[in-house]
Amino acid sequence: MTQSSRSIRTANSNGRPNSSHQTITRVLRQARGRLNPRDIPGFTATFGPKDDPGLTQSEVAHLLGVSTKWYRSLELGKPRTYSKQFLQAVRRVLKLNQEEWETVWRLTQGRPAPDSAPRPTTVDAVPPSLRRFIDAQSWPAYLCNRRWDLLYYNSAALRDYPWILHGTNVMIWVLTYPEARTQLIDWEQDWAIPMIAQLRYHAELWKEDFGLQTLVSEVLADPAARALWDSPDLPVMPHPSATATRKLYLPRRGAEEFEVLLLTMQVDDMPSNRMMIVIPAAQEKAVAG
């Protein structure tokens, strides 16, 4: 038996595993119990209205993109080969704090948790005037580089996209985070395929960019994204269309669908970066009318 297998098993007086008293079971159950379903974008549309706090095992499994049986095995402390990507998704979905994350990682892997801090950003490299402009937007706005690493974002972006707390790459979130497929309506056609087309274009344009090629490898490690990589429906446009609307769900807005436009801007002093503003399509249509 491996160290990680031994470490997540306890025994009662009869020498049999007692899952109700295992540390990992308590940690994950408590985390599930304190979640507010209304804070999870797309939850109501997927599972229906829910007034009581807490998520069931099957609800958590759906958000993780795995079977209920697989997630239940983790919560019961059963020794399995749990991948780093799966455990990190558990951390995001259940909003584990640092101590809880360290506990879950050690009890499943038998070693200290790796440095899981978000990719470093270069906020200091963003001109103060540009930061003020982004902060002043009432709509979600952010600045990213050609690898889609976030360099700066405003409070509206953090409000609508909770994933920002756990990662700072837009492409990774859209294409590989299971919970993105719950928030983004028509994920494959309206979100994933256009972004894969952009990623392929950038990867071919900057073949010597090691960070960009690493990003491609990380995206292709996801089976759903890999299946779309050679899709015959990939658009030609290497950037988001300013006229194509997309739909998504927002935290605390239930099953209400929000139609948005993605407006990109380039700053002359930062030619390899671009700013994105997520604009409600309804307001755009009202102005046009």
UniProtKB/TrEMBL annotation:
Pfam families: MLTR_LBD. Coiled coil: none annotated. One of its GO terms (molecular function) is DNA binding. Residues 126-283 form the MmyB-like transcription regulator ligand binding domain. Residues 1-22 are annotated as: Disordered. This is XRE Family Transcriptional Regulator. It comes from Streptomyces leeuwenhoekii.
